[in-house]
Structures are given as C-alpha cells and as structure tokens.
Amino acid sequence: MIGVLGRGRMGSALARNLAVQGKRVLIAGRTRDGTRPVGLASYPEIHCVPAPVVVARSDLLVLALPFDAAVDLARDGLLDDGRGRTVVDTTNPPSSVGGGRRSGRLLAELLPQWRVVKALNTVPAGMLGEPVLDGRPVTVPLAGDHPSAKIECAALLCGLGFVPVDVGGIDRAPALESLAELLMAIDSQHALRGRLGFSLAVPELSAVAPASVAWPDRPPVPVGERQRLAPPAVDNIRSTPGRPPRPSR
Ligand SMILES: NC(=O)c1ccc[n+]([C@@H]2O[C@H](COP(=O)([O-])OP(=O)(O)OC[C@H]3O[C@@H](n4cnc5c(N)ncnc54)[C@H](OP(=O)(O)O)[C@@H]3O)[C@@H](O)[C@H]2O)c1
C-alpha cells in the first residue's frame, strides 16, 4: 500500500498515476474527514483517509506537502509510529530556507526511523502522467542513504515510466532541490507550463540506476509516443550496497 500525504497538484497527480497502474493508494490532506476531492472521484484504488491512517497503514510513504508542513509534521512526531519504512520526499523548500541544510537533509534528520529518499521533486506534477518527452524517457534523480529504500523508490519511478538515477546519499538532496529550482526557472523563462524534464545521456543507463536495478533490454522509445517502461523484475534487483556492477548483457 502506497501512502501519499498531500492531495494537491503533486499528491493527486501521483495518486492517479499509481492508481492507473492498479496500485492501491491511501491519500490525505489537512482535513480529517476523508472526503474525496473531485479529481480523485473516478479512481476506486485511491482511498482518502485522515493523515494518521496514511502514516499507519502505508508500506511506502510519499510526502507531497509544502516543505514547512512536512517539517511541522515530522517535528510534532506525527510521522513517527515507531516503524521504519521508506519515505519519498518530493518537497522543494522555499528558496529562503537554506544554510546548506535544505529539505531532504533536514527531513532525514527529523525522521531517523524512516529511510528517506529525495526524489520526484524535479518532476512537475503534470509530467507524472507523461514520463516521455521528445521521444526520450525523463530522468528522475534520487538521493538517499539506504540502498533498499532507493531500490523501492526506483521501482516506483520505473512503474511510472521514468528512468531513476542514483545520485548518492541524502547529502546530495540540496543538489536535487537546486536542480528543481533551475528547471522551474527554465519553465518560467520559456512559459513551458510544467512540460519539461531532462534525459541523462550516459553510455549505459543501468550503470547509474540504484544499486542495482538491472534494466531489461528495451527498444528505443518512438518519438512522440508515450510509452511506459516495464518496471524492473524483482529478481533483477540486488540490494548490494556501493556502486552497482554493470549487468552483463
Ligand atoms: N506541483 C508541482 O509541480 C510539484 C513538483 C515537484 C515537487 N512539488 C512539491 O510537492 C509539494 C506539494 O506541492 P503541490 O504543488 O502539490 O502543493 P498544493 O497543490 O498546494 O498541495 C499541497 C497539499 O498539502 C496538503 N497539506 C498542507 N499541509 C498539510 C498537513 N499539515 N497535513 C496534511 N496535508 C497537508 C494540502 O492539504 P489540503 O488539500 O487540505 O489543502 C494540499 O493537499 C511541495 O513541497 C512542492 O515543492 C510540487
């Protein structure tokens, strides 16, 4: 069960696209009554519940809240039910928050019992259903200190059609937040209305996946055609820490 805290643009878009894959999703906003927003009405896989239920019943939790709200929830102990699980932090702090300890790092410190992965903060909400741009799948960088959590997060991203790229430990979260800031600046400069992303060019994508998602061989994505990439088979995922060996082909 995937839990999403925040049911605004990011949380709702994520929940809808997970539901399209047949995943069951628990989602919450601030209200405790569990009413279903109009945009989620036609997705029986999505269950609107109070936030504590999302925290208690999710196997993997996604934070799609304003940064300050996520920090408040963490500081108030509302995300702590004593069970360490993976949390995907999509937040981008306001640029005034800084001092070298930005969102991902700070949340990881506030949530020591969780395995925090910073990811999806570079993906505009509208792109969650369109993971391919100009014929190329969009790259989603992720950062975290826990290899098993990065693999879980990578599987989620693959399911959504993105290419996950491991950028290292949670200390790299500020770089992802700066990248998001840069993408937002490009968006605004060229009025792209959230239709942008980047596709990393490397000799072998499997070499930069979290340790290690072995990518199945796949044909090039046809230009202009939306294509969901198959999630990696569980057998192909190794949780060996450290840099992944290149899979033999
Ligand atoms: N929008 C994007 O394209 C995008 C892309 C990448 C990352 N992000 C990041 O995703 C996060 C959410 O952005 P957004 O655009 O989705 O914002 P949004 O549309 O304003 O939605 C924010 C959601 O957070 C909920 N919320 C606020 N405080 C809460 C609390 N204490 N407990 C539970 N829920 C709470 C709100 O609840 P109510 O429904 O009750 O008001 C609302 O559903 C931000 O950190 C943003 O930086 C956004």
- Shape field: globular
Which fold name corresponds to the CATH topology?
Rossmann fold
Mean pLDDT: 82
Q: What is the top-level CATH class?
A: Alpha Beta
Number of continuous helical runs:
6
* CATH superfamily (homologous) name: NAD(P)-binding Rossmann-like Domain
What CATH architecture label applies? 3-Layer(aba) Sandwich
Unreliably modeled segments: 216-249
Secondary structure tally: strands: 10
**Widest sheet: strand order?**
3-2-1-4-5-6-9-10
Can you list the ligands bound to this structure? NADP nicotinamide-adenine-dinucleotide phosphate
Largest sheet: 8 strands, mixed
Radius of gyration: 17 Å
Total of domains: 1
Percentage of residues in helical conformation: 25-40%
**What pattern of helices and strands is seen along the backbone?**
EHEEHEHEHEEEEHEH
